[in-house]
Amino acid sequence: MDKFTNMETFVRVVEIGSISGAADRMNIAKSAVSRRLKELEEHLNAQLFHRTTRTMHATETGTEYYKHCLRILEDLREAEEMTSQAHCVLKGPLKVAVPSTFGVLHIGPAINDFLQEHPQIEFELDFNDRQVDLIQEGYDLAIRIADLPDSTLLARKIATVRHVLCASPEYLQTHGSPESLSDLSHHQALVYSLSKDASHWRLNTPEGKLQKVKIKPALKGSSGEFLLSAAEKGMGIAHLPTFVVHQAIREGRLEVVLPGYAFGELNAYAIYPQTRHLSRRVRTLIDFLVARFEGTPYWDK
């Protein structure tokens, strides 16, 4: 019996909650997972799971054993990484989930530069705005733009993300430039469809008072780049992050609307599971991204 392999298989089943899910994640047959669990329970002479037709939940004994397995496997990985570190080699797979627009515009180029320094890293990047389940889907790391990270996860801030209202000079010449928040309700709004409330914008007045204004969505989309293009074509006023629109504003293709008003700031976080050992690969990548976007991001300068 390969104890370490069986321990790792056991940990995957506990975290994912099913044999089939663990088999898919480990890219092995379900029968192999079942065999390893059986060997482990026979070796320990203990029941590690409560089994149903669809899911598996660790018993009290299994939960305690899971905690010990995590520590043992993390110690093993740490020993392997320390050995690799002695040879100054950073290598192996990294599966990372990134927001689509922020990922393409900023994280992707950063990863390309990171690979120049560490060419033996094998990246798998998922450009998607959905919130992935890091454990069940096997991600080492996720980049998320959010108010606060999920309390079940560990997070490190990468950058501050600011938003502005903007429109093309042609649109403002035709429809007029809003002079107050109430004016926004008479304009065509270009709205990010995955926002929590697609029918209102919330802004802070110059005095710092939060106000909520009803908008008239003329166009909704889940892509920041699409909304940028629509704004540049004069389709309406867009609410977009500066990391998307900074270049268009600098070049005069868009103008900031109501510059004295501000949206609440969000942060971009590097997020990883509490139960996962933070490998040297992941630690190095996070440090690289923090240094890359340290202080005021270049798109806000």
Automatic annotation (TrEMBL):
CDD domains: PBP2_CrgA_like (cd08422)
Cited Gene3D superfamilies: 3.40.190.290, Winged helix-like DNA-binding domain superfamily/Winged helix DNA-binding domain (1.10.10.10)
Presence of the UniProt keyword Nucleus in the record: no
GO molecular function: DNA-binding transcription factor activity; sequence-specific DNA binding
GO biological-process terms attached to the record: DNA-templated transcription
SUPFAM superfamilies: Periplasmic binding protein-like II, Winged helix' DNA-binding domain
Pfam families the record matches: HTH_1, LysR_substrate
Keywords: DNA-binding, Transcription, Transcription regulation
Listed InterPro entries: LysR-type_TF_proteobact-type, LysR_HTH_N, LysR_subst-bd, WH-like_DNA-bd_sf, WH_DNA-bd_sf
Domain HTH lysR-type: 1-59
Superkingdom of source: Bacteria
Family: Belongs to the LysR transcriptional regulatory family.
The protein's name: LysR family transcriptional regulator
